[in-house]
Structures are given as structure tokens and as C-alpha cells.
Amino acid sequence: MSAGNRKREFERPRHDIEYVEGWGMAVGATSRVFRPTSVAEIVATLAAARADGVSIGLRGTGCSYGDASVNEHGHVLELTRMNRILAFDPATGIANCEAGVSIEQLWKTILPHGYWPRVVSGTMFPTLGGALAMNIHGKNNYAVGTIGDAVREFDIVLPSGEVRTCNRQANSDLFHAAIGGLGLLGVICRVEIETKRVYSGDVEVRAKSTQTLREAMEYFQAHKATSDYLVAWIDCFAAAPELGRGLVHDARYLRRGEDETPERSLALAHQDLPKNVLGVVPKGEVWRALRLLNHDFGMRSLNLAKYLAGQIEERQGPHRQSHAGFAFLLDYVPNWKWAYGRTGKRGLIQYQVFVPHRSAADVFEEILRRSQRAKIVPYLGVLKRHRPDPFWLTHSVDGWSLALDFKVTPESRDRLWRHCAELTRLVLANGGKFYFAKDLVISNTDMVAMYPPEKLATFLALKRRIDPDMCFESNLSRRVLHGLRR
Amino acid sequence: MSANTPLDLVSNRNAKTALVVGASSGIGAALVKQLVSEGYAVCAIARRRDVLDQLSSEVAASARASGGRSIVRVHDVARAEQVPQLFEEIVRDLGGLELVIYAAGIMPKIGSKEYDTEKDLDQLTVNVGGAIAWCNAAANLFQTTRRGTIVGISSIAGDRGRKGNPVYCTTKAALNTYLEALRNRLSEVGVHVTTIKPGFVDTAMTKGMPGLFWLISAEKAAEMILAAARGRVNTRYVPRRWWFVGTVIRSIPSFVFKKLNV
Asked: Complex ipTM above 0.85?
């Protein structure tokens, strides 16, 4: 018997067998998950995978709805233990972070200094590395672009083990390919990112109840030059003449001096999301109540209730809300996705389509009509405005996106996928695109149709050059990039 | 099964798969036999190869009858650093994992005036260190599959610090607290943790002990333990009448307890 106080030699980097799933829970697989704590341990992880003869899928906090961070044929490298903020300069607002730093860590570090991230997702949990690999956007995409547009520089560990620094001047190809590069080119391990000066911990929010999808879109067009954030919730159950009715939220930053006590609103305590719902129900249990409503009738009622509540909200006029409260709507109810089921590949997909401005309204209306006709109605719809960006595999267009949450059960899965395939044809015929932080349904053929041929070919050529052994793969890459098959 | 073969731990809802750590004798061996007879694929872990081989041959017939199977792994729970690798191999070999039972424990004889640090720390390593290593691995997997049950075999000895073997009591108290914490952590994801507090069970550990009463066989104990785990019981005395004893013992004030020889 060995003595209890013997110093133990644990293997580094540490690894565990885990079930690795997409955030929407509709896809997942068992993998060995490595959590390196340094660049040296990232390199050791690459070596371990090579020795085992398997590929590596890259993962942050697993916030992608689909299969972007799932790798059923190999290992997974999760970057969450490399989560130190290396530097933040309150004079310039530039933050230098390890790539496992979450958006939550970032905003909590910078807000007391009077800064807010330029681009945040609807949840604060993604890592910067994951956010770059997916080139995420926020409710201000039309105004400031994607997160890639806010990045000054990053370091990436290539399959060879070499660490390369990329910015718009040096390694600019890799800079524009790896942002939005789906984690297929290397492990982004350090990110230098610009943030925005703010003069209050609050934004001013105005609600506008809209009777149709087109009315919401007209509101966006009229306000996009002046509003800092625009987003609309859409009730997908409502039929014509109220097709696409919903609620627009329009927010703007406060100017210097508008908030008389910025030191109070910039404090983290002011940013806390409410702990209880309706004042009494602990947030952690709310998903159980939502689960009772998780069927067509329940969700039709909930959407109607929200629409009616929106009319009241509009009458209340402009009001101030904390940055976190406005930005991170998805974090209000912890684990709300469990309302869709908690085990056995039950969950949701988010089908988000990006369509150029000229045809967006027609395409979106047709999607809503077809979904209602097929009785496969999304339980949540969200409308946003976008603009193009210079990243090679970007999803962004000068146009609009409609994000639709569909419930997935093992029984409904095939039918839902067929329905989405039909919608995808419509979207692609109108020059539309898809977004890989969400997608779980498009095929390799759809992917090819999404980009000008030379764009995709250039990406694939770069991938083959720097990763000839296909060190980095994922379920997503195997699904949509057949050109990479060995 | 190699690392690049997909393994679905989530869709297969009725997979009967279990891991018993500390399966060489007593309650652990009885649990393996019981599970195999119910058609489970079971991995039995112990330090000695010969004992494991013996156990495999004993369950071979009932495995054929039930459709269950057993695999064995030689492992010393003091070697916590081996656990992640071994745990992964076991999950892949079994094709899943639903139930993890930590039954390893040692209780060396300690004289009434003996203070032997080596013996004491060995108890800590096996009874607590090994439990933490294995249950952590299970907890980490189960929190991602959002299913599964962890069972820790503790003891009524953890209810009070007693004269007989101070550190044995300490390890079981530590185990109780650890398991309770795991239970509280994992309840959010639907994973259950059961703490078992056996009274006197007829095993090598209690052999020759004076003053035994309410003695039950290891087989009977195994049956009760599995029933408690399936019923998602938090803490269960085995057999249940020990609950009265435990409750009385826990309520005796210290100024009285220190005079008693229990």
C-alpha cells in the first residue's frame, strides 16, 4: 500500500471522457476532452491526438447550437482553462486576453473602467476564441460589424505547433480566414480586442410593437442610422394579416453627462440580472414551468402573451436598462433550453437565415407561411439587420437575418430536417447564407452554393496547406466541407 | 473500442451498465454478482488479479442466463492518477455507463492506545482519496450526459467520532460530506448520488469482531443498496433499522458520549 501523502503525477494536459454536445442538445458525441492551460499544453494535445491517430475538434464553452464544437471521431480541445485577461488599458480600451476568456469575464473587467465590448452575443458565456472562430455578431451588426471587426490581433497555434501572430498587416490571409474559420485552421490562443467607451452602465431602450414583419423592417430602416442596437422578436404563430407581428427593441448608448451618476451604473452590482422571476420564483427552476408550455398550444399562448405585453411596454416609453440586462436576454432563465427536454437528444435547433435586403421580406414571410402550413412552427423568432465584412467564410450579408428556434425530438427529427431543407433551397435561391454558430441542417451542397466558388476554394487550399494531415476537424466540417475529406 | 469510434451515451436509454470499484470481496463482490444476474454489463475493479478472475468465473453462468457480462480491471485505488485513463477505457468497453458504485474501503485493526500514522493515512487514501478520484470521474461524465447514478458505500461509523478507530470514522464522515456535496451539485442536472451506511455486514471486514448484532449477508446488503439507488434515496442505512441506532447515537451529547464504549 502506498502512503497517502505521496505526490501524484497526473498526466498533463488533463483530459476526461465526456459527452460533448451542441448547445441545442440535438447533437452530441462522446470524446476525450483536453483542457490545456498553456500553449505548451495545446501543443502536447496536438501530439496526443496525432499519436492516437485521431483529429481534434476545438471547443470553447460549447455555446454553438449545432455541431461546430462536436467531434465524434476524435478528441476535443476545450480552451476554457486558458482564461486569463493578460492586460487591459483603460486609456485605449484595448484588452489582451487568452482565448478562453469569456465575454462575461471581459465585460465584467472593462465595464467599471467605462468600456463595453463592441460586439456581444445574446449570451455572455461564449469564449473569445469560440466567438472568433464563429465570427459572432450582436444586435448591432448593421452598425459595427461582427466581432472580427473589433479584433486587432490574435495568436494561433498551427497544426505544426508553430504559434503565429495575425493581424490586418501580418499574416492577413490567416487573420481573415481564421476569424469565421470554424476552428479548422488552428487554436486561437490569444486575442487582442478593441472595446467601446461608454458613459453609463445603462442604455436607453425603446419598445415598438409591430403588427407585421414588414412594419418591423421599416422601423429598422428608419432608425438604423441613429440607433445603436436594433432587434425584433417575432411571433411565428401569427398568420396574415398579422404575419410576423412582434416587438422591436431599439437601444442607444447614453451620451456623456446623460447619466448623472455613471459610477453607480457602471458598477457590476448594477448589472445583475434579476434573481427571481415575477419576484418570487427562483430562476433556476423556471425551465420546469416552461417545460409545461413546451408544445404548440403552450407556445402559441406564450407568444401571444408576449405580443400583448409588448404593446404595454411600448406605451411606457423609453426606459433605461443595464447593458447586461439588455444584451444577455438568453441568460435570464438559466438552462431554459431544458424546457425542450433534458436527455436523449431532445432539444432545439436554431435555423438562422441571412438574406440580402432586396428579397428578405418576401423570403421571411414565405418561411413563416410554409412553417405554419407544415405545422412546424418555430417557438421563437428573432429579426436582425446585418452588413458585410471582410472575413472569408462570413455569414454576413447586406441584409437581414431571421433566427428560428425549432423543437427537436427523436420522432420529429426527420420531418424537421426535410422542412428546413425545403426552406434552405428558398434561401439559397435568393442569395442567402447560413451561420455556423447556429446551423445543424445544411449540407455540403448548400455550403458550396453559399459562397462564390473561388472563396471556398481559397479557404480549402489554405486549410490543406497549413493542416495537410487534417488535424482539426469537427462534425460540422465533415458535414459541410466534403472538399476536406481524406 | 478506440477513440475514433463514435459512442452514443445518450440515445440508448435502457443501457444497463455499471462500474463497481472495490469488487474483490464483501459488499462489492456481492454487488457485481447481483448486477450481472440482472443482465448488466459490469466492470469490476480490485487490486488483485486472482480475486477478480475468481469473481469472473463465479458470475459466468449467471451472465449467460441473464445476458449480462462482466469485465475486470486491476487497479489500486491509491493510484488516483490512473483513474482518468482507466475510466475512459471502461466506459468505451462497456459501451456506456449508468451506475458507479464506490465500495472500496479498509479498516485496519487499531489498538486502543495505538496512533499509527501510516495505517491512518492508508485508510484516508483508500476510503476517501479513491472515492474522490472515481466519483469525480463519474460526476464529470454524468454532468455532461445528464443521467446516471453514483453510490458511495460509507458506514454508520461516520456518524460519530468513536474510540475504536478514529481515522476510520473520519474517513467515513469525510465520505458522507463529499457525497452529499456531489448530490447537491449534480441534482441540477438530474444525476443522483446515494450514500449508503451499512451496519454490520458479514464480510471479511467484520470477521472476528466482538459484539456484532443485526448481522446481514453481503448479498442481502447488495440487494438493499441497489434498491436504494434505484429509488433515488439520498442516504440509506442498510438494513434500515440502523437509522434508529444512528439517530440515537448522533443525538448523544459529547459529555456523555466520551464516557461510552461504543
From this structure: yes
